[in-house]
Every structure is written in C-alpha cells, then in structure tokens.
Amino acid sequence: MPGYPSAIETRSLPTLTRSYPRRFTFYVAWLIGVVALISAGYCFWLMTVPLSYDWVPVVLIGFVVATGVFVISLIPSFIVLIRLRRSPRAPNAPQIRPTL
Hints:
Oligomer: single chain
Radius of gyration: 25 Å
Structural class: mainly alpha
C-alpha cells in the first residue's frame, strides 16, 4: 500500500531508558524517601500517643512500611556511590611550573 507506513514506529527499551535523565530517577527516589521518612516519624510519634486498640496495628504496619520504603529509596544512592568508586580516574595531569 503506497502512502501508508508499513509498521508503527515504537521506541525500544534501551532508547526509552536513554530518553529519561538518570538524575530524574534520583530526584524521584529522594522525594519518595523524604515522604517515607516523614511518614515513619509520624507513625513513631503516634506510638507515643494514647490510641484505641483498633489503631495500634495500623500505626505499626504504617511504621514498618514507611521504614521499608525509605530503605528501598536509598538503593539508587548506593548504586551511584558504587559506580563512582569503580569509575576510572583521570591520570594526574603534569603540573605547570612558572618559568623565570
């Protein structure tokens, strides 16, 4: 059929991963980690407040889930640190000394 594309063009997975900046991923992970840490702190504070027994399991589960999400959000930071340690370092450039 002339004039019609033979196939619909789609992005492959490697192209799709290159199209989104990696820093965006770390900003999202940082934001999720901050929200999870605030949620865990709030649940921890709720543990000190007298509550009815109906709310105790909810607060404990919320605290455990928020702490787990915070720990998971730290994974991208550890990946970056490991990559920085393994990256090849530039050789020392010769120092330029002034001539008199």
